[in-house]
Sequence to fold (374 residues):
Amino acid sequence: MIDDDLMRRLYPAERLAEVRKAVAEAGLGAVLLTPGADLRYVSGYHAHAMERLTCLAVPAEGEPFMVVPRLELPTVQASPAGGLGLEFVPWEETEDPYALVAARLPGTGTVAVADQMWAMMVLRLREAMPGVRQVAAGEVMRRLRMRKSAAEVEALREAGAAIDRVHALVPRLLRAGRTEREVGRDIAEAILAEGHVSVDFVIVGSGPNGASPHHELSDRVIGSGDPVVVDIGGTMPSGYCSDSTRNYSVGAPPRDFQEYYGVLLEAQEAAVRAVRPGAAPEAVDAAARDLIAAAGYGEYFVHRTGHGIGLQTHEHPYIVSGNTEPLEPGMAFSVEPGIYPGAHGARIEDIVVCTEDGAERMNTTPRELVVVDG
Ligand code: ZN
Ligand code: ZN
Ligand code: ZN
Fold:
């Protein structure tokens, strides 16, 4: 159910020109993108990295082109990239695609290669273009990708609503006697049923496992009185990702858990309230952290407050101490403080978008602890 109109607005033809301008301003000769989030952002073409080279080149001067295996040409042409007026350079199985890229970029001084280009491809390009300096494209690409367009915000809103529908089902899946893995399997099914095309991660952290922020699933049997951290996300047909954490308890939770959960709720709220254009990401982090520290739980908040999100679950901007680059309208990121004392833990996570005067949450399910029958 891909909304064609949204897809056109998500991957507009003007983006190639924006990238070319950014490449020229950065003093680069060209940017080279292989399958991954950068390539999808620029062209709308979604492909998995493979040993055969697919490479979009956007030179500062001259026309952009995409070198693509002959057998994949129909797939590229059917994607949004087919409508960009982009030149495709198909290569046969016996040809050297690296030489094709090099031949079309004569006199280039510096090329920026996608941050996630395979080392094998980086090295083959280096051989094919001797004397050309290679740098990472991340700095140029992140500047473009950080500020989401109205269509991208719409796609994130859609992703947020889809993962919210999954969280709404979780109370029915959680029961004493079930394992984390059994619950996780049901959640993964629901992530797909609610509109995602892939399940990116499913964290069901019960009892002490909830105190390990990146615990995924185990065969631990959930018991009565266990708090459970559920952090889940997937990718929508648009390419945009969801990521949301809610906390559940099977039967009444321990008293000490209830005490810090109230602190965490306030901290998450305070951090979201700190989001506005011009605010430093580190100030958003501090808004949550100071409150948690003042309540005596500072040592148990062991990670940054958030990460950017878009075509990747983790991207710029990072909401972390030391990041002073001011927030701008359109920036999208998680606000997810956590407290992990050991016997259990909790994290509350929403994706928010910086607006003209504050923040809009993409996740709107209740953030209070959801107690299900033990
Ligand atoms: Zn994480
Ligand atoms: Zn997250
Ligand atoms: Zn998460």
